[in-house]
Amino acid sequence: MIESSIVVRVHEGLHTRPAAHMAKLAKAFDCSLELVCRGVAANAKSSVKLMLLGVKEGDEVLVRAEGQDESNALERLMQYLVDPRSGLEEAKEGTAAQVDAGAVPTPSQGAAEAVGGNCVEGVAGSKGTAIGPVHVYLPQPLVATRQVIEEAEIPAELDRFRQVLMNFVRPPADDAGVSAQDRAILQALVDVAQDEEYVGAIIRGIKGRGDAAAVTLRVGEVLAATFEAMADAYMRARAEDIRGVTRQLAATLLGQKLPDLSRIDTPSVLVAADLSAWEFAQVPIAKILGLVCTGGSATSHVAIMARTHGIPAVLGVPLSADELRAAHTLAIDGDAGRVLLNPDAGQQARARARIEAQMKAKAALAEYRDLQPVTRDGRAIEVVANLGGLNEVEIAREAGAMGVGLFRTELLFMQQRSLPTEDEQATVYRQMAEAFHPYPVIIRTLDIGGDKPVAGIDFPREENPFLGWRGVRMCLDRPEVFKPQLRALLRAALVGNVRVMVPMISELGEVRRVRELVAECERELQAEGTPSAPFELGIMIETPAAVLQADALAAEVSFFSIGTNDLTQYVMATDRANARIASLYRVEHPAVMTAIEMTCQAARRAGIWVGICGEAAANLDLIPRFVEMGVTELSMSPASILAAKKRICQI
To answer: What is the pLDDT of residue 297?
Structure first.
């Protein structure tokens, strides 16, 4: 047996999605794996047990491994735990449907309370104002009339449960209209439903002569109550996930149908007691004006999904089922976390005035959707999207993206159990390019390392993976991984708008070696008779070394793209995941801004263009400074594009 301690850097700790991803990673190894936190051990192959540990960001944990592949397993889990993004790659920053989407609303008070009259206060779940007729979702409590089965019925009852479970865990089809954010949440719930801690307890109960539905309800409630007893509010919210999964399974086992939320045909405020993410995924989003729940919190999955779709929501509202049924109209304020029951004429007028103001603000931004933003003195700026997969294309186009400034190819690698083939990569890159043609699509070559492990590449354990064998460093050492990607990019370049950029450049020799590999791949494809085309090659400016050599590097490439996230981290020698020194992690710090300006000056002298693809590209206060420095392209989350276009036109 081997073991090692580590400080967890996973954002918000091991809640549903990161725990499910970690359990899936652990199951790929034959050895036994345990995670120990505050003296309590849990099987690392069980997502539920990992969640019940209550591991928070910043906690020190012990990882234990015992078995034939224990060394590799320990290494991979340690790498997973130090990455702030682990388990959250699919979760993007909301859509363009909601102004200022993505931020978690702050509850106006610590607990829900009545505030008098017809106004009730809960927890702000998703910003915005809504008013409309009520659609009440209050399914009858599920009750199993039969508790005990005969010994001879056990095999059939086990088969019945397994069949119901199998039907439940089928994820939504790719064309089911489910967003990438929603899909990630639903997949995490599927993983919970398959977890040994949950399913194993139900199977044991059935083998003990328990009726499948009765056992499912009992196990689900015990497990949900366990989560509710946890100290951390974020983990308490996971009780809703357990109850939602249990409700779906038990209803099917009982032969009952829950009310069909997909049949809502009138624009309404959806009102419920407990609403699970699984149930919310069924609603026709276009018909939902707002959401009110007596349960839930700002960190619940249904709140996250409401924010993703720009639906105002108030949760944790202290109303009884009878009070909910008695309401025919609701006005909700998702910013303040307030609900008006059957508002009078004056209250309705004020709510509609707020809605009109919000709609005008959105409409004003929507005018910029198809606009090429130009400053008042005539400088055109490209505003493009940072994307991680094809499922985000439509969101980006709806948001007004003028192409792609950063396509993160590592997500294609991280989502598979083995390295994607050249053909698989070429198909994805070509489809991305075709989706935005004739606008440019900039594809970043593989940017993985010890902080972002993938199946098929063994990474050494490093004290600081952010300064280690990652990005172009790994790719140049592993041509059998890098060349298939370069060949796929050359094949996709036939579309005519593909550009390629290389991450983590620190010296001129790295660029030249990449160019040599590209030329080698071109010759191979030509000899094989495989159609291909050249592409513009650029590099990311992320290291201080690249900034200080910008003049020499500019002579070798077609463009620069400044990755402000890592550049800030490296210039300021600041771990961006460390809350204690967060005040140092500032793009607007004079040292970082000087590095950006030096890069722009070198690009101008060489006659190449320069863009920004870090989070700072969407900073409305910094955009004028970037434009003044000579930046001509800004790449950002789709949710920020319209506001950025408007800001550019005001410069």
So the answer is: 65
- Cα angle value 146/148/154 (rounded, 5°): 115
**Token pair belonging to 467:** 């300064």
* Through-space distance between the first and last CA atoms of the chain, rounded to whole angstroms: 62
Is 39 exposed, middle or buried (CB count within 10 Å of its CB: 0-12, 13-18, 19+)? exposed
Q: In what order do the strands lie in the sheet with 32-37?
A: 2-7, 60-66, 32-37, 40-43
CB atoms within 10 A of CB 221: 14
Containing 420, the helix (H) or strand (E) segment is none
The H-assigned helical ranges of 401-554 are: 410-414, 422-436, 472-477, 479-492, 508-528, 544-548, 550-554
Is the pLDDT score of 474 beyond 60? yes
Summary count for the chain: helices (H), strands (E): 25, 21
Tell me which residue of 193, 174, 195 sits closest to 183, measured CA to CA.
Answer: 174
Q: Give residues with Cβ within 8 angstroms of 608, minimum separation 6.
A: 538, 554, 557, 558, 559, 560
What contacts 442, CB < 8 A, 6 or more positions away? 384, 403, 404, 405, 406, 407, 499, 500, 501, 538, 561, 613, 635
Of 128, 102, 104, 96, the C-alpha closest to 643 is 96
Reduce the secondary structure of 298-334 to three states and give it as a string: CCCHHHHHHHHCCCCEEECCCCCHHHHHHCCEEEEEC
CB 277: neighbour CB atoms within 10 A?
22
Q: Out of 3.40.50.1580, 3.30.450.30, 2.60.40.10, 3.20.20.60, select the CATH number for domain 388-607.
A: 3.20.20.60
User: Would you state the pLDDT for residue 472?
Assistant: 93
Give the CATH architecture of domain 2-81.
Answer: 2-Layer Sandwich (3.30)
Cα(218)–Cα(214) distance, integer angstroms: 6
pLDDT for residue 454: 65
pTM beyond 0.85 = no
Which CATH number describes the domain made up of 113-139+260-358?
3.50.30.10
**Long-range CB contacts (within 8 A, 24+) of 375-378:** 375/627, 375/648, 375/649, 375/651, 376/649, 376/650, 376/651
Q: Is 42 helix (H, G, I), strand (E, B) or coil?
A: strand
Q: How many CB atoms lie within 10 A of CB 588?
A: 12
CATH 3.50.30.10 placement within the chain? 113-139+260-358
Q: Render pLDDT for 478-511 as a digit per residue (tens, 0 to 9).
A: 999 999 999 999 999 999 999 999 999 999 999 9
On whether the CB atoms of residues 319 and 297 are closer than 8 A, the answer is no
What pairing do the DSSP bridges indicate for beta strands 404-408 and 382-387? parallel
Length of the chain: 651
**Sequence ranges of the chain with CATH classification 3.30.1340.10:** 2-81
pLDDT > 50? residue 109: no
Inter-CA distances, 180 with 173, 455, 523, Å: 12, 22, 38
Give CATH for domain 151-253: 1.10.274.10
Instruction: List, by residue number, the catalytic residues.
Output: 301, 613
Produce one character per residue of 302-317: b if its CB has 16 or more CB atoms within 10 Å, e if not: bbbbbbbbbbbbbbbb
Q: Which tokens hold the place of 177?
A: 């209209």
The pLDDT score that the predictor gives to residue 189 is 65
Report whether pLDDT(92) > 60.
no
